[in-house]
Amino acid sequence: MKVIDFKDAGCRHCYKCVRYCEVKAISVQNEQAHIMEDHCIHCGQCLEICPQNAKTFASDMERVKGYLKQGIKTIVSIAPSYLSVLEFDQPGQVVDALLKLGFSEVRETAEGAALVTEEYRRLLREGKMKNIISTCCPSINDLIEKYYPSLTSQMAPVVSPMIAHGRLIKSIYGPDVKVVFLGPCIAKKEEAVGDARVMGAINAILTFEEIIKWWKSTGIDVRKCEEKPMGNPDPGVNQLYPSSGGVITSVLADAGKDTYHKIHADGIKTCMELLEELARGEIEGCFFELNICESGCIKGPASNRWQRSMLKAKMDLEGRIRHREDAREIDGSAVSMEKIFTDRSVHDQIPTDEQLTEILHVMGKYTRADELNCGACGYSTCRNKAVAVFQGKAEISMCLPHAVAQAESMSNVVMDVTPNMIIVVDRDLRIRECNKRALDKLGVSREEALERYIFEFIEVEDIENVLATKEPIMRKKMNLETLDMVVKETIIYIESKESVLVLYWDISKEEKAKEQHMNLKMETVEIAQKVIDKQMMVAQEIAGLLGETTAETKVTLTKLRDSILDDGEE
């Protein structure tokens, strides 16, 4: 089961989650981001910064409500960071608000932290470890086991306060009691349900965000609740665990003799830098308190007020802790505190130089100069991105410069090869853009054109009309005498730019062909008329000749008849 992931179709090509993920545990496939469970350290950073609200979180809310509905004894282990996160007048009001939901008892996780503190003190006194790295933060534990496995021997072999507390509660009330951890941490859920080494100590996880929504849905106003005590003895200084340096402060409250130098570090980048140094073997003799979140757990990703000032949250927590002495009356003798950390690193396949070069070429990176290393895709260098593409974590299309170059290339091809003039003119009739054909016809360079006005070249009455009315002119035939062109004119108003797009479709050749065709017709008609006239003349001449011949024939025949008749009478 994935504790966190992203909703399908929720992504919007921003890759912000990839950029912010320091361990690059996010893959993008078919333009959709997914969290790679085997790479993830469950810090929750990607969910905090996602601008599309595309996050999903596996909630235990219904499971917890089921426990309560069935009447199962269910106890809350509440992280002490509630003192700086939840809204109340007195801390005891939070206890009453939780009891009103049906929980049997509310105890502070700091009770488990007290047991962890004792284990850390023991390790410090023994002095057997080269360095001791605290193991309270499950995200830090994941980070080391997956990405710095050589340091697992320097991790304190101790469970987290949450696990220690869950085991303590079950040792007191029996194995059938259900323990629900309430806190600001997403990684705690993965620790509780995904780590076989500590399985069963915690039955469910609720975040502060979830509990606030639950109170609102049931009409519970924490500030109107009674003040009731926690079910545990005073954990004392161990309530400071959520605050940066709180573990060290707790350990030192009853310090024995040890030679370790105490150092605390917060934030994933700072912690990774420190772990890099440790991995090189440059440091020894130190006790390190490491927190994946800036300023510790008081700024956990599920605190519902993570955007709150870190200083204010720290002041609220420390100001509400009355006792800074060591915890008393907390017996953990029946609780197993050991946890052995191991190498859980993931070994991704690395491309050969030839494979890497091939991917870079597809990305449009043919030389080192082409590798802009802009980081828009989420990877610090183009080569890292190419490696991610090879490993199936990234897509070629994630390269913004490459995508822009392709888009510009195609649009430039269209603009440059079209035989039409395309000009963008602003409200002042100044030329803002034009294509190659327009530059050729205007007889200027692009730099010069962008400093000129359209009325310097052509009549602008139609352009002014469209700018004034915002009504387009479509395919209007006109003669651009200054450019010796016959065109079909289209002018469209661009609302967002307060400009017009002017397109002149050159139909000069078509018009000339029409003229030639018309001239050919006229010549044909003229020739035909001449033929007709000539035929009429020939016909008339023939008719005249026939008339003369007929008259002569008549005279001759008449004479012949008369002569015959005369001979007969004699």
Written account of the structure:
Helix content is 42%, strand content 15%. The protein is an alpha/beta fold. It folds into four domains: 59-320, no CATH class; 353-406, no CATH class; 418-506, Beta-Lactamase (2-Layer Sandwich); 511-547. Strand 10 (261-266), helix 12 and strand 11 (286-291) form a beta-alpha-beta unit. Helix 6 crosses helix 11. The longest helix is centred in the C-terminal third of the chain and has 62 residues, at 508-569. The termini are far apart. The mean pLDDT is 87.
How would the blueprint of this fold be written?
Layout: E1 4-6, H1 16-20, E2 26-29, E3 32-35, H2 45-49, E4 55-57, H3 61-69, E5 74-78, H4 82-85, H5 92-101, E6 105-108, H6 110-126, E7 132-133, H7 138-147, H8 161-173, E8 178-183, H9 187-194, E9 204-207, H10 208-218, H11 246-252, E10 261-266, H12 268-279, E11 286-291, H13 310-320, H14 353-362, H15 382-390, H16 400-417, E12 421-426, E13 431-434, H17 436-442, H18 446-449, H19 461-469, E14 473-480, E15 485-494, E16 499-506, H20 508-569
Parallel strand pairs: 5-6, 5-8, 7-11, 8-9, 10-11
Antiparallel strand pairs: 1-4, 2-3, 12-13, 12-16, 14-15, 15-16
Helix pairs in contact: 6-8, 6-11, 14-15
